[in-house]
Amino acid sequence: MHVEDISRAFIAVLSAPREAVHGQAFNVGRNDQNFRIRELAQIVKETVPGCEISFAQDAGPDKRNYRADFSRIGRSLPAFEARWDAHKGARQLYETYKELGLRLEDFEGPRFRRIDQLKQLMETGNLGPDLRWLSEPMAA
User: In this predicted structure, what is the pLDDT of residue 140?
Assistant: First the structure.
C-alpha cells in the first residue's frame, strides 16, 4: 500500500458524511492487489536488474490466507480509488533508491536496523546494558 493511497483514504473518510464512516474499519487497497510474498518478490525481480530471489530450502508453503477484502471502502467511499499498484510502487522505490545512491550496506547496518544501532551505541560506551544513556556519553 502506497502512502499516497493511504493519505487519499484518510481524506476521503474525513470528507465523508459521518453516517457513512462512523464506527467502521476500512481495508485500504484494491482487490486485484492481494499478493503472496513470493509474488511480491517476483515483482521486485522484474523491476531490479540483476535481482535474484532465493527461498529458504526448509521453508514449507505458507498455508495462511492473507487475502484482504477492500470492497467496504468502495461501497462506503465511492469517490476513493487506490491508484498505486505493486509494480508501480516497486518502480518508484527502485528509482528513488538509485537516485539517492542507497546500497544494500545502508540497510544492513546501524542506520536502518535498530538492533545494530543499539549494539553500536553500547560498543562506543554511550548506552548501558540496560539500554539507558550513560551519564556522560562518549563522543561518537
Answer: 53
Structural contact between residues 48 and 97, judged by C-beta atoms closer than 8 angstroms: no
Q: In sequence order, what are the residues at sequence separation of 6 or more whose Cβ sits closer than 8 angstroms to the Cβ of residue 122? A: 128, 129
- The Cα-based distances of 129 to 109, 113, 123, 139, 140 in angstroms read 20, 18, 10, 18, 18
The pLDDT, as a whole number, for residue 55 is: 83
- Tell whether the torsion through CA atoms of 6, 40, 44 and 91 is positive or negative: negative
Q: What is the mean pLDDT of the chain?
A: 90
Residue 22 DSSP class? T
Per the DSSP assignment, residues forming a β-bridge with 127 are 133
Whether the Cβ atoms of residue 86 and residue 40 lie closer than 8 Å to each other: yes
Instruction: Evaluate whether 127 touches 116 at the Cβ level (below 8 Å).
Output: no
| pLDDT digits 0-9 by tens, 48-66 | 999 999 988 887 777 777 7
pLDDT digits (tens, 9 = 90+) for 96-125: 999 999 888 888 888 888 899 999 999 999
Whose cell is 467511499? That residue is: 77
Count of C-beta atoms within a 10 Å radius of residue 45: 14
